[in-house]
Write a structure and sequence with these properties.
It is a single chain. This protein is α/β, with parallel strands linked by helices. It folds into two domains: about 160 residues, Aspartate/ornithine carbamoyltransferase (Rossmann fold), CATH 3.40.50; about 160 residues, 3-Layer(aba) Sandwich (Rossmann fold), CATH 3.40.50. Helix content is about 40%, strand content about 15%. Strand 6, helix 7 and strand 7 form a beta-alpha-beta unit. The protein is globular. The structure holds phosphoric acid mono(formamide)ester and norvaline. Phosphoric acid mono(formamide)ester (CP) binds next to helix 2.
Length: about 325
């Protein structure tokens, strides 16, 4: 099809028309193919080649929360693919005044070709996807952040050269970013060790499902409360903020609970000497990560942020073209 004029690859046909709410809804093969496509689209973009896979398509971008990376990378990604992106803050829509989400989904399906939404509640996004006849892409909920995870594994692949058998240590809050990251790693055979304080662990049912996928791909997902144990011999160290958007009232309690979980010079001594540091950003320097680490030579956080663009173009092109 159209993409073959540019690169010896196709969009991932089996995901056409699907929603992307979590990577649980995709097969390991599909995730691998999306990653290859993201890589190919990135190489083309570096040569100023942008396959026009979304010409004539309009994608609505709905936000209930702040965003820098997600908003800009989606707008630019849709535009680079020849489509039109339309930013909307939820408070300006009638859902901000109580119009049912299901009605909104049905109405928007009459105008748009796809919706990307960042919402407080994952349940709300499920409801929207159920009502809408067009694909819905999750741009972060309280439970998942799948677009981030594809950019994360793309970055590891670029820097380490391969994914299966790598050890990724996630140290911190068992949050939306952690959930999507472990599912993506499970699909790609990356071993994961997660260290979170008691009370801030990742969701047990998400963990169990991800562990099943990991087993099929020859990898493991382990949990501990000990950051040193998680980081021991790690190829990749990943962390995220201790207080996510919407949890600001818990900031003080969380600062106490996460004491000892900071990624700093002492902790990284336990990782492999060529460890890679990743963070989805935005970051709080001297809270979850020391400045010397995030701004140091092992950190690839800005390459990771750029990869949101390329990963999402693969998702958009495959789901919507
Ligand atoms: N990582 C991420 O999703 O960043 P934004 O909140 O800026 O979109
Ligand atoms: N866990 C963070 C991720 C931000 C991209 C949050 O939800 O605020």
């Amino acid at each position: 099809m159209k993409l073959l004029e540019y690169v010896n690859l196709e969009v991932v046909e089996t995901v056409k028309g699907k929603d992307l709410l979590t990577w649980f809804d995709f097969t390991s093969t599909e995730v691998k193919k999306l990653l290859e496509l993201a890589s190919a689209l990135k190489s083309l973009a570096k040569n100023d080649v942008h396959p026009p896979l979304l010409v004539g398509k309009t994608v609505g971008l709905i936000f209930e929360k702040h965003s820098t990376r997600t908003r800009i990378s989606f707008e630019v990604g849709v535009n680079q693919l020849g489509g039109h992106a339309m930013y909307m803050h939820a408070r300006d829509l009638q859902i901000g005044r109580g119009e049912p989400v299901s009605d909104t989904g049905k109405v928007l399906s009459g105008y748009l070709d796809g919706i990307m939404i960042r919402a407080n509640s994952h349940k709300m996004v499920e409801e929207l996807a159920h009502a809408a006849s067009i694909p819905v892409i999750n741009g972060l909920t309280d439970l998942f952040h799948p677009c981030q995870a594809l950019a994360d594994v793309l970055t590891i692949h670029e820097i380490k050269g391969y994914l299966p058998g790598q050890k990724l240590a996630y140290v911190g809050d068992g949050n939306n970013v952690a959930h999507s990251l472990i599912i993506a790693c499970a699909h790609l055979g990356v071993n994961v060790s997660i260290a979170s304080p008691v009370g801030f662990e990742i969701d047990s049912s998400i963990l169990a499902k991800a562990q099943k996928i990991a087993a099929l791909n020859g990898s493991t997902i382990e949990t501990t409360t000990n950051p040193i144990e998680a980081v021991e011999n790690a190829d990749v160290i990943y962390t995220d903020v201790w207080t996510s958007m919407g949890q600001e009232d818990e900031t003080v309690a969380r600062l106490q609970a996460f004491e000892g979980y900071q990624i700093n010079e002492n902790l990284v001594q336990h990782a492999k000497s060529d460890y890679l540091f990743l963070h989805c950003l935005p970051a709080h320097r001297e809270e979850e990560v020391a400045s010397s680490i995030i701004d140091g030579s092992h950190s690839a956080v800005f390459q990771q942020a750029e990869n949101r663009l390329h990963a999402q173009k693969a998702i958009l092109a495959s789901i919507l073209s």
